[in-house]
Amino acid sequence: MEQHSKSAYKAEAEVRDAHDEQLMDEALMDTFPASDPITPMCFD
Hints:
Blueprint: H1 2-31
């Protein structure tokens, strides 16, 4: 029983992370015009 709830919680967390990433992607698309080339981020 405990094992099942652990895996269910893990799956739920993964879904939440994926949703957050999707929201972030959408926010970035709103911030930058689609015509701009996407520059890789490098912090040197």
